[in-house]
Fold this sequence. Notes:
By secondary structure, the chain is of the alpha+beta class. The chain is built from 21 helices and 24 strands.
Amino acid sequence: MKAPVAYFTLNKTGNILELNHAAAELLKMPIQTFKYTSIFPYLEEKSKKKFTKFFKQVFNSDQIEYGEIIFKSIQDESIFANLSAVTYYDEESGEKLVRCNVIDISQIKQFEEEIITQNKLLASENRMKTLFTESGVMMLIINPDTGQIEDANPAACDFYGYSADKFKSLNISDLNIMPENEIKKEIENTRKIGKKHFNFQHRLANGEIRDMEVYCAAIQFAEQRKLFSIIHDNTERVKAEKENQKINTELSNAFEELYAANDELRVNNLLIENERKQFLSLLDSIPENIYVSDIKINEIIFANNHLKKSIGRNITGELCHQAIQNDAKVCSFCPINHIINSDEPYFREFYNAHLNKHYFIMDRKIKWTDQRDVHFQLAVDITERKKAEEKLIQINHRLETSMRSGDMAWWKMELPSGSIKFNPNKALMLGRNPEDFTHYRQFMDLLHPDDYEPAMQAMLKLINGELDVYKTQYRIKTIEDKYIWFFDSGIITSKKNGKTLVTGIVRNINHQKIAEQKIEDIIEKTPIAIIVSSGVEQVNEYIIPEFTRLLGYTIEDLPNIAEWWDKAYSDKKNQKKINDEWTKIVQKAIETKSDTEPIETIARAKNDTLKHIKWGFISTDIQN
């Protein structure tokens, strides 16, 4: 019966975690003595350093490593052993372990010593024959020159299925499935460089192929050198190692797939978060009041920067009726009743007594970034427009009609396809059917020829990264073949998978344009010399003809107010005197919140004549 191969399992510190009875019997100690103890006390002193080096080599390798070590039994006997060791990953403990198979070669060592002294001790030959015959380990004696098998012990005969006589008629190449020339090379390696350990595949008498571990030694028999081979069947171990390697590979692949899935999930989450931030950034960039509240409890979950400035604080977390209306009770006109069961927007005009402002408001139910239904409100400040309506009665009816129907709409455009989605009001403001528009060019084809190219260039600069915000004004044709003015703005809200999403808002500013033109017409005809300037630097926007007729200066002569001072009052001393007087007048106007009192001076005209003039300034609060 074939003796089992001894083995033990070590962790990275060299502690014994597992061993079989064959390993315990090898060292002649009870099996329980070894478990969880260090391997080093069972090594001879001269082998400890060698084993440490071998162990490190094994632990840092993914291959099977071989070595020869001397153990020490409890009776202090030296036990020569060949080791074959390999690392593997233990899932239960979560650490890398080393499995060592141990083959006692003390008999080989003993044979070698006895054969060396066989000429002196003839009895050793009988002893060797007895050991060869009675050992349960498979042994062969081979002629190194020819490869002929000269003897096989009973254990080998039993395993391979050949009789002793049949074995003696065989060559080692009849067992070893390697090419004959390679077998000769390995025999030569044993003879010349002392190679002792091999892994071969042998064919049995029944044709079965088995994985064999072979230990060889070149020994002297009488006057001849022979190869003495000890053979172990490693088929099950090799099979187990391959299976273990397959499992480890599958586990490794599974972990890699898991890591890849986690990375993909992380990237997707980042993209979602980035889109959320871009959406909130878009809302923050809109110069109108916007807030989002929980549709059930009225708690504000988002307020844009413009609304925070209007209220004077961050109102996130407050109830909308308290923060926006300064009312402890839910508003009787609460728009949620209009939108909770509808996907359509609800438009209205409203005077907010708390803020003392008029608003055009759009309320709508939308899905928020956390996928819950929320109340979205966009409130456009129309207070100034209301004031303008009082001054421009002739266009009041048209403005009221425009505001009742709503004068703004959102839109989305996907590039490169050019497909669009938009609020129906964008088409309805033109008197057109929203279903007629699926591509941006269908709107662009309606633009006034003079406005087409500037509008396209503004959009291209946004797409190319030259602008952060797309802003343009253009004239667009209605169903009645008339042109009305739109103010259009947008930003890039998404870039992924080769697609760019642009989102924006369009407003009907036709009434504003009409009003501006009428004001310009009035100014053009006024007999008063007027300069229109803007900004902290007081850049001159317009000089009416009467100013040029009176003083001769054009907009090219006076690009800003500073040029007026230098040209009209070239004497620096006189200029300072007038400037100081003017500064006092302006300071008084600021303190009393009134217009400046006119100042009388002598100013130099463009033709160097002196003119007695009375002048001042009025702030219009007009914003483009």
